[in-house]
Amino acid sequence: MRLLIALIALPCLFCLPPLASAPALASNSTNTPLQRGWLDLQAGHSTMRQSEQLWQRHAGRLLSQRYGNALESFRNDSGREVSNLRVIVSELAGLEQLETARFFFFDGVLFRISGRYARHIGIDEAIRQLSQRYGQPSSVSGSERRQAYWDTGEVWVSLLADTQGALNLQIEHRPLARLVRTSNIEVYAGYVVAKPPGRSILMP
């Protein structure tokens, strides 16, 4: 059974594009420091070191730091984890306007930000701030669960106010996120192949 699943997973690897090197950092042509706090970080460009320096400047508190879970690219109802050592997830509190936030890095480059705004920040104010970075939203809905989306081609941004009043944010760099999914498949295929004979792949 272990060998069968490995044989099923491995052909998918040949259908996926090869891993690319991390993109170069975006330059600031004016050499003027930005002053938007955590929004100065750019998915697909900012490094982990740059992020850590910004967190220190803005009094962010590091709550936890762990490796990514390769099983996030698969349906995973068991709660199991298979660590992808190329992905680091840092969870912080205390950043301006965000109650909590998680920053995801692939090979040291930021590819995703997810977080929850502080209760005193309304969706209109959040849209205004995000629009300064990403331009006008591609879509805004005005129902009970108000939401807004931005799509810049490479970067996708989602802002959602749920029924409990929490305002949730996700920012993702699509090309890097695709590389992460490819890496997760490779890690999981290696995990399956390395299982001792006779042991179920469902066991840790």
Word description of this protein:
This protein is α+β, with helices and mostly antiparallel strands.
Profile the largest sheet: 8 strands, antiparallel
- The number of distinct helices, counting runs of at least 4 residues, comes to 4
Topology as H/E string? HHEEEEHEEEEH
Name the structural class: alpha+beta
- Name the helicity range: 25-40%
Strand order of the largest sheet: 1-2-3-4-8-7-6-5
Q: Tell the overall outline.
A: globular
Q: What integer is the average pLDDT?
A: 80
Strand content: 25-35%
Radius of gyration: 19 Å
Q: Low-confidence parts lasting 5 or more residues at pLDDT below 50?
A: 1-35, 198-204
Q: How far do the termini sit from each other?
A: 16 Å
Counting DSSP E segments of at least 2 residues, the number of strands comes to: 8
Oligomer: single chain
